[in-house]
Amino acid sequence: MSIDKIIVFIAGVVGIGLTYWFFLANKEKEIEVSDSVDIIVDGGYSPEAISIAKGKTTKLNFIRKDPQACLEEVVLGDFRIRKQLPLNQKITVELTPQRSGEFVYTCGMNMYHGKIIVK
Amino acid sequence: MQTKKTFSIKGMHCASCVMVLEQSLKKVEGVSEATVNLATEKATVTYDSQKVTDATLSSAVSNVGYQALITEEIRTEDDEQKEKQQELRALRLKVIVSLTLGGLILWGAFPGLMKTAPMFLQNFWVQLLLAVPVQFWAGFGFYRATISALKHRTANMDTLVVIGTTVAFAYSAFVTIFPQLVTNIGIEPAPYFDTAAIIIGLILLGRYFEARAKAGTSEAIKKLIGLQAKTARVVRDNKEMDIPISEVIIGDGIRVRPGEKIPVDGIIIDGESSIDESMVTGESMPVDKVAGDTVVGATMNKTGTFTFKATKVGGETMLAQIIKLVQEAQGSKAPIQRLADLVSSYFVPVVIMLAFATFAVWYIFGPAPSLLYALLNTVAVLIIACPCAMGLATPTAIMVGIGKGAEHGILIKDAESLETAHKINTIIFDKTGTLTKGQPEVTDIISFDGRAQDEVLSLAASIEKGSEHSLAEAIVKAAEAKHLSLSAVEKFKAIPGRGVEGTIDGKRIVFGNKRLMNKEGVDVSSEGDRIGEMESSGKTVMMIALRQAHGEAFKLVGLIAVADIVKESAKEGLCALQKLGIEVVMITGDNQRTASAIGQKLGISRVLAEVLPDQKEAEVRKIQAEGKVVAMVGDGINDAPALAAADVGIAMGTGTDVAIEAADITLISKDLRSVAAAVVLSKKTMRTIRLNLFWAFGYNVILIPVAMGALYPFFHLLLNPIFASVAMATSSVSVVTNSLLLKRKKIS
């Protein structure tokens, strides 16, 4: 095998490894929320993972700064909430979770994900 | 100077908040009027601007624990609509520019076609110049989204588009600037600006159509909101005035004239009319209403003029509740979506990894020029992958399905109920109030002894007037309907479990069942057959006997049969379910004979009679234990546990709030055909979802390997990146369009 092919082979393997590490091995630590939290919607949800208390009402204030259409809706399917997020406006979602567990919420197209951990 | 201001209030959650806020605002010196609306979460305050400032209003609100957004700009539906339109216009411009420029580049670069193109278009530098605005102006949104996603270490469809088109653009720019370098490694210097530009143009075109189609999926809510009347004609201090419906308060008298919409829910206090309730119940026939009847906001008054008292306003009205329920249901998640959820969270990174693999494999093992093959196939892999179609497959169909249900008076609590409903194979109906009207009516009057039927009815009604028994009400109502005059009764006595007795004009009368007649020594044997016949057809027969004078024997003077009438729609409704292959079961507390009679009339073979209210739930579980997927249809408080226990609980909207709360599906209309319609809706929605998922998954599963070159060893077939972008652009649109087709499907 010529040297260029060896380089491409190694680059390919490294590329796959880096992609895995960058996107899939990414475990963001959750932020503990007591009463309310501002979630910035810009290329994803920030903070991405939050933990809230079971049985207690917590306010999630979504502020969308990203104009792409995919993010204009947020869907908290487990809580039966689908909300439009107008650009640069604070939209509050109130949750009073009755059971504990991990609940993923997404954008309207299921491309961006955030996580609510109920403890 | 008096000023009126409307502002939003945050933190309101119940009707008592309205009272607290209004009191607090009214206490402010200088405020003459304050109304707070829970539905819109807004306060309207009239005040003296010399004495009151925004800050005083704000602190009056915050003192009681809420937040006033006085300076906030109030966004209306129109504003949002305008914004959406602007976005669509901007997107259309980008589509036109990128496809035009991309088309020109393609003309000057595509083998065969380029011979017909003007010379300047064949110039690589001109092509670069045309490609730059497409790549960095029209495609700017893709870059922006990618950068912000990368900050979160996530990737999306835009990431794939950016990598794919940037690779094509960068290679082409390199070839244009350093053609000699490319020639030196044995590759003919040919740029692929057309690929990058057309891909961007087509994907933007797909997004444009998708955005337009997606707006249609939430149309049901807009339609429901649009049903609401804008103003109400209230009667206050004997004066009629038109006010916005947000200012109507409970207890207001509201006048409605022919052809007007009823603004809020209430009870008619004066007048009568025929009302079209089809927009809320789905029932096409107008309903006649008189004083004492309830009216529902957003329905249409047809003929008469009447006044009604508002009993529910703002967020409490039936329409507001329906809107809330539909909104919540549309936001819920169907279990079938779980797989798509799981796949989509890994999808984009996996596609990027596959792109690396494709490049390496083609470069190492591919035919010459291997770099070009590697490059084009990598771009094709990145461009063909379409995670959006997977993300849209289930929610769009659920939104359309739930919206369509609401239009037909079928309110579905969540996506899971909609999904489960298609698996139902047994439906248990509660009898009283669900299959029957729940209000007994007189069906037969038989007179003896040469008396008229009306005389028998009049005697029975006179004596029953003092009784509280449910059958007594039916007899009195029947006499009233015939305008019969009732006589005064003396020495009235109710005999529990048997009937009643009393004296009219000195004559002693007994009215009740066979046991009462036996006790009084009345001979009813001559009518035994007739009584038996009526009883076996589900009627309750009562006998009336009269004694002319003390010491004489009682003589039978008439029979009155009372029955709970079966709803007109019952037979057809059950027939429709049986046609769907669903077993129908009737459950009732009635005796076996009456229950069987009604069951036979309706063609129900499985009848569970003499079931006490607290046993209904156990009966549901017993049938579930047979391996059946069970739906329970009921309307009363006693049905609530059974509704909750069933796989799908269906409440008739005319029933109690408790039943509706416990149910998964609520039918607003009394029409039993809607039960079958709900099942059909579920089946059609699920079929749409499955088809969507099949396309979305099948598309990615089949076309990604094709783009990688899986067919090349056998057929020398490769996927041109431009065709990949066509497929990608159409995939999301086709999924949304398929969901929208649900709107046209018939469910009843």
UniProtKB/TrEMBL annotation, chain A:
The chain crosses the membrane at residues 6-24. Gene3D superfamilies: Cupredoxins - blue copper proteins. Residues 18-118 form the EfeO-type cupredoxin-like domain. InterPro entries: Cupredoxin, EfeO_Cupredoxin. It comes from the Bacteria. The keyword Transmembrane applies. Keywords: Membrane, Transmembrane, Transmembrane helix. Pfam families: Cupredoxin_1. This is Cupredoxin family domain protein. It comes from Candidatus Kaiserbacteria bacterium GW2011_GWC2_52_8b.
Automatic annotation (TrEMBL), chain B:
Belongs to the cation transport ATPase (P-type) (TC 3.A.3) family. Type IB subfamily. The chain crosses the membrane at residues 91-112, 124-143, 155-178, 190-209, 346-365, 371-394, 693-715, 721-742. The keyword Membrane applies. The keyword GTP-binding does not apply. Keywords: ATP-binding, Cell membrane, Ion transport, Membrane, Metal-binding, Nucleotide-binding, Translocase, Transmembrane, Transmembrane helix, Transport. It is an enzyme of class 7 (translocase). GO terms for biological process: copper ion homeostasis. It comes from Candidatus Kaiserbacteria bacterium GW2011_GWA2_52_12. Its main location: membrane. It is found in: Cell membrane. GO terms for molecular function: ATP binding; ATP hydrolysis activity; copper ion binding; P-type divalent copper transporter activity; P-type monovalent copper transporter activity. InterPro entries: ATPase_P-typ_cyto_dom_N, ATPase_P-typ_P_site, ATPase_P-typ_TM_dom_sf, ATPase_P-typ_transduc_dom_A_sf, ATPase_P-type_domA, HAD-like_sf, HAD_sf, Heavy-metal-associated_CS. GO terms for cellular component: plasma membrane. It is a multi-pass membrane protein. This is P-type Cu(+) transporter. The lineage of its organism: Bacteria, Candidatus Kaiseribacteriota. Its EC number is 7.2.2.8. Residues 3-69 form the HMA domain.
